Each structure stands twice: as C-alpha cells, then as structure tokens.
Amino acid sequence: MTRSHFEGTSTLSDRSAFQRLTPNIQGNTQLREPQTEAYTAIVEHFADIENHREAGIVLPVGCGKSGLITLTPFALKARRVLVIAPGLRIAAQLLGDFNPTEPGMFYRKCAVLPGPEYPEPAEIRSAKANLSDLEVADVVVTNIQQLQRGGADNKWLADLSEDYFDLILFDEGHHNVAESWEVLRKQFPEANIVSLSATPTRADGRLMSGEIVYTYPIYRAVQRGFVKHVKGLVLNPSSLRYVRREDGQEVEANLDEVRRLGEVDADFRRSIVSSKETLDTIVDASITELRRLQDATGESRLKIIASALNMEHCKQIVRAYQERGQRADYIHSREDSRTNDAVLAKLNRHELDVIVQVRMLGEGFDHPYLSVAAVFSIFANLSPFVQFVGRIMRVIKQEAPGDHLNYGSVVFHAGANTAKAWDDFKDFAEADQEWFQLLTEQVPVGNEPSREVDPTNDMGRERDPDAVRIVEPGPTTLEELPLLSDERLKGTLTGLLSAGYTAEDIGRVAKLLEPIPVTKQARRQASRSWLDETIKTRAGKLVRDHGLSPEGRDLDTKHLSQGNWVIVKAAIDKKANASVGRGTRTRSELSQAEIDLITGRLDSIVAEVEGELFGG
Predict the structure, then answer these.
(1) 72-122 pLDDT per residue, tens
(2) Regarding the domain delimited by 4-216, which CATH topology (the fold level of the hierarchy) does it fall under?
(3) Check: CATH 3.30.930.10 for 226-431+459-512?
C-alpha cells in the first residue's frame, strides 16, 4: 500500500511545539520531586545512543504520572507523539492534561508553559477522528481498544508511515507486554517508547518492557505526603472449624494450619472469602476500622472499597454490609454502563459507605476518601494487589504527611494467603532503584518469558458447592502489619510525632475483633434487596443461556410489548412469591423466614420457569 500522503516528515515542515517551546521544568516549584527527577532520568537515558529504544518509569499513585506524561515529549524533543491509555476513562483524563481549552490543563496549571502557544492535541476515538486531525497535531491521545478495532473505524491506522510517530508513551505501562501493544510497537519501529506505571509487572507476573530508568519508592512518597500511610490488618482466628471436601469430615484447625491451608488449597482460600462465617469477620473488621478512622479524623465521608471474586460474590458482600447498616453498592462489567455510572455518582456524592467491585476501579480511578481496602478476592500476583491497594492511597490533604486524614488500612484474612501479597508489597514499597535494576536483569529486555503464575489463581470462577465449607471461626484477633519497616518508618516519622504518631504506628498491635451486631430488621431488608438482585441476575442468565436478547420479544406470546428479560423475571417473581403463599407485588411484605425459604428454593423455581417458558 502506498503511504506517501501520510509520511511522517512530509506534513510538518516546521518544528513541532515540543521542539520549539522551552518548558519550565527544573526549579519549577509547582512540579513534584518525582516529576522533575524522572524527567532528568529520561533525558539522560535517551542521550546515550547505546541505550535501548525503550524506558520504564515507576511512580506510585498520586505522584504525578499524568503530568510527567505531558513533560516527557519535551525531554526527547519529539516531533509527533502517540499517548496510549489502557481505557477510555484514563484516555479522557490524559487528553484533558494536554487540552488548552480545559481549565486544569497541566501546562497552565503548573506553569510549565507561559502560553498562548501550546502543543496541539488530538484524540482518536472511533469515527470521531480522521487523519487530517492527526496531521495538525503534536500529540495524539487514544486508548488501546481504539487501536484494536477492525473494519472502517480503524483502517486509517494502517495508512500511517512507520515514522509517523517518533515517541510512544504507554500509560499504565505494565500492560505493554501484551500482544496488542506489541503490534503497535512493531508498526512504528523507529519510535522511542516510554512506559509509565505504578507497578513494573502486570497481572500475570510479566515485567513491562524497557529498562526501568527511574522509580520513586512508596516510602519516599509517604515521607513527602504524596500518598497515604497504609497499614495491613490481618484477621487471625484462634481456630477454625471446617468440613473437609474429600471426606465430609468436620475438622478444627489452629491458626498455623489456617495459614498453611490458605497457601496450598485454592478451595480453602475461596471459602475463606466467600463463606458467610468468615466473610462476616472481614466485613466487621473493615467497618470497625472505618469507624476508627472517622472518629480520629472527624471525617464522615471516609469509605471502604471491597474486592470481590465475581458478580454473585459482589451481591453477597453488599448484603453483609447492608445488614450492618452500611450504605453499600457494587459495580460490575456485566452491568450496563448507565447502572455502573449511577453507582459511581452515588459514591461521588458521598451517598455510599462501601463500594464493591471486581477489578473495575483500578488504574486511573481517583476518589481519595476511599480509606479502607477490604480484601475478599484472591491475589496471586503483586501487580493487581498494588493496583487495588492504590485505590486507598490517594491523599485527602496534599503534602501533609502525618495528618490522620492521610491514613489507610488494608483488611484481609489469614486464610486467604493475602499475607504473601502484603509481604511482596512491603518489599516493593521500600524498593530503591537497585531493586528494579536487579528485577530487569532477571528478565532480559526483548526476551521476556512468562513468570511462574500461581495455578490456583481462580479469579472469577463460579463457586463449587462441594468446596470446603467453613463451619465456625473461633475468636478472631486483628493484627496490625506496618507497610514500612522500623527503619523506614522511623525515618518517615522524624519530625511528625506532633501530628499524633505513636509507638503503635511502628510496632504490631493485636486486638480482639468484636462482631458488629446485625438487627433483624436490617437483615431482612438486606436479604430482600439481595433476593431482588439475584432474581434479576438469574433471569438475565436464563435468557442468555437460550440465545435470546434481553430486549427481544421472542417470549411475548400475549403481545404485551414486553421484552424477554421482563417476562422471565416476572415469571420467577410470581413463582417465588407463590412458593410462600404470597401474591404478586408483595415482596416488601415478606418476612425473613419467607425470604430464606425462597432463597433455598430458588434453583428449583428457576428450573420450573425454564421448563414452562423454554420447554427445557
């Protein structure tokens, strides 16, 4: 194919804005220390012609990664830049940092450029962009999904010359070893590449490509007040009674055995985070910690973020929090965007105490009032754990180390094997540049084998009814685990004792967990809400299982202008209410005993509806 119309050097007769303009970087007090240091490291790396074409930057959440992305093109005096984000939300945020029509545009906000001239941005988003937009742009922002599109929406990308971009910036660069990113890397073989991330590895353990030339360790970010001071709270049951899967025998395990089983038995791990008996202890502990932080700060808007295994698990966790009087809701990729957006709007209006999700609120999500992370999922690798904990690390008060508003806590159970992820996170938090250089040496650039991944990482698998069944946990203590070692923490606390730090912040403190009482009314109301959500989900699954569209009219034999999902849900509702002698539209009148009966019969009710509507 002829590419002459879109040759990279034929359309920019003059130098680009990144070559003409002089940014105010060194000595600019409105820039953060990691931004200026990383900028210098990038300049020095690419000044050495012997260096590889790629470089990696590791910055903790809240340390100015987005701003650094706007500065990096000046470090290389780039001609035309492609900035790639892992999703639409982050792409929109990055475009705003470049866009001079936005009041918070980074160059203006941080006095990097005096104006009125700024680098010209353009956005690739489906058919809204065309090649003429790119021709007049200095920087092009998009998300990786746009570049994966086939058909008419993305044919133009193949028309770009190999030298069209001379710099590619990967935001959340730990994704950049994926096949989709590799295709882009090969399409522009002469472009320099800089990857920026809060973690050097992705979910499967693979290291992001490129030499890691700069890192800003978490301990320094804590010292400067760029991120919250985070601690771990591990739930240690004195003993735990469970039913063994293989022989149905009820067994009592002490704490050491609970930890061992969590390390070696995937079913045991899943039962720890999903069985009501142990799930409730995580819920109680996270609420107790949230209340402690709210009392210490006087800030009622502090919140909990919880990680779940799947959609059904989300609903189970929401129900447990609601039973205890917490305003809880969930978002999930299987819900439509309007539903998720409505939940996030409630979060931003501070109408929720708890938000539950399955890896939905990750990279780029910014809500600093999230202060407690409750771990109900299985983390087999450091990267997703860092991404999740990162949601509670954004500070409420900027550059105020030691302020109690800038505290965060991670709550997890000893039997879920999260302690290993915490220990890895602790090492990562204290890591200096030498640690990352060693990491890079262990995985040669350009030849990155897949790291060993825990084969028991069963995220998203449906729960096996024959898995380990937790019967009863013994008295449970909460043990504090500092993120930073005594040496690092003492350095962080120097000069900050007046802010309220005590010896407890350095040592480990164990305290008995007091279960949070659940009123019968709150339990019934939460159970009813859970039943409603479960019936909605089961109705949708039944429609999909039979290859029908939820909005289709295949089942509308009475010509009532009702969609398939509405008809199936109404049939389940009617049969569920009838199973306890209730009529239609009487769900609000159900007692707890009636709700429990319907819950126990739900599988057979759904099967009956399936037989009646689908002939199955």
Answers:
(1) 999 999 999 999 888 788 888 899 999 999 988 999 999 999 989 999 999
(2) Rossmann fold (3.40.50)
(3) no
